[in-house]
Amino acid sequence: MTEFSQLGLSPTTLQAVADTGYTTATPIQAQAIPVALAGRDVLGIAQTGTGKTAAFTLPLVELLAKGRARARMPRALVLAPTRELADQVAMSFEKYAKGTKLSWVLLIGGVSMGDQVAALNKGVDVLIATPGRLLDLFERGKMLLTGVELMVVDEADRMLDMGFIPDIERIFKLTPPKRQTLFFSATMPPEITRLTTQFLKDPTRIEASRPAMTAETITQYLVRLPTSDPKTKRAALRALIGRADVRNGIVFCNRKSEVDVVAKSLKQHGFDAAPIHGDLDQSLRTKTLAAFRAGELKLLVASDVAARGLDIPDVSHVFNYDVAHHADDYVHRIGRTGRAGKLGQTFMIVTPNDDKALDKVLKLIKMAPEELVLDAADLGGAKPAAKREDGRSPDVPKIADSSEETRADARPARGRSGRNRNRAETAPAVVETAETASAAPPIAAEPAARPTKPARPVQETALRQSGRRGSNADRAPAPKTTAKPFGDDDIPAFLRRSVLIKA
DNA sequence: AAAAAAC
């Protein structure tokens, strides 16, 4: 374990780290921070959730602390593929640049340019941006990139997926060649390799190897339906939500239109749900995500905009209303739960149309999720209303385990190195009846008694642009403990666990 | 196959 104090960070930065409660660095942080502080380029091959954001934010804060911002001449640039991810980087700056005079601005689309332009005119040290808005502002002559000493590219392979590579290339060329570059990607397809050989100078390659994909902290279930009729799927979803002791959950759909329909339907049935996807107004996206993070919204119905990288600690359930067409997305989706050592349950609804997609998912995760069977009656619909004393809805469907699945004994984590191929130990099959179901691992230790706070004002979006954000008090802070790895919240627990493999 | 991202 590497202590933070060993990494060459200044007392001010260390204090900001200490304030978050972390003392030990994750592997990517332990490796990347000294290299970056030495002024060298970094090629970080790491998934989201390895503590990557702090691995580049901290050296950035440290390296920039000395100089001063000039009008329209930012000194550092961080690029992220989605608005929400860019916002997360901004939150990281908010934490770690606290003791410095460093200023930053979030440059993302979907919000007015006014505040962004004002901040640029005034002079800002760090731009945290999605490529589209950055180039838009650049073309309008709102900033020069010739003063950029440091550039960070986050989630490069996702940028590739999204068609951003020409933009990234262009932005690279707008910055001076002598800049220092910190480049992160989960995978290294040829296009990305080409980019790094072209724009990075003798980078130090740092690899947090691809982690194991599932763990005993995440219990995965699969529900087969005889039909792909949307009504039946929605009824099944309601039944599952009603059955599970959902504290908060994300429902993933493959299409934006489906997100809207499912969210609307859930609301009509009395569930506390709201949609999030790329076609929705940015202020709504921001507000919805903030409400979900704050525990004010129970169910987030999402497209894959929310599948990757989003740091929402403490999601108790993930529902795959649709089987992810891209198997990687399934792993990212379920990785939204089971974080920070908490238990999580995931449910995947499978219809006869989903065979191909399901095959790909099962191949990737190398295990067979337990299959649940819903009563025909449940497909008529369950409602969340009228709780009994035991906290369960009277019309909670009984979920019977139809499979002969066996469970692996809990194994000690084998670290993040390589895929664990532990064979599951054969144990007597556990048939889950209505009785044993209630004795299932407690997912939500917390009662429903969460204080409700008013939703955060939309106006905060504007505040963010200027780098003078409102109080952070309502953004559920990371739990403070003394001796846990730094950035632990960012690591889905399942990344550190053994894999269950169907015997 | 779809999502994401600039106006």
SSE inventory with pairings:
Layout: E1 2-3, H1 11-20, E2 24-25, H2 27-37, E3 42-45, H3 52-64, E4 76-79, H4 83-96, E5 104-107, H5 114-122, E6 126-129, H6 131-139, E7 150-153, H7 156-161, H8 165-174, E8 180-185, H9 190-199, E9 204-207, E10 218-224, H10 230-243, E11 249-252, H11 256-268, E12 273-276, H12 282-293, E13 299-302, E14 317-320, H13 327-334, E15 344-350, H14 355-365, E16 370-373, E17 400-401, H15 434-438, H16 460-465
Parallel strand pairs: 3-8, 3-9, 4-6, 4-7, 5-6, 7-8, 10-15, 10-16, 11-13, 11-14, 12-13, 14-15
Antiparallel strand pairs: 1-2, 16-17
The protein binds one DNA strand of 7 nucleotides through helix 6.
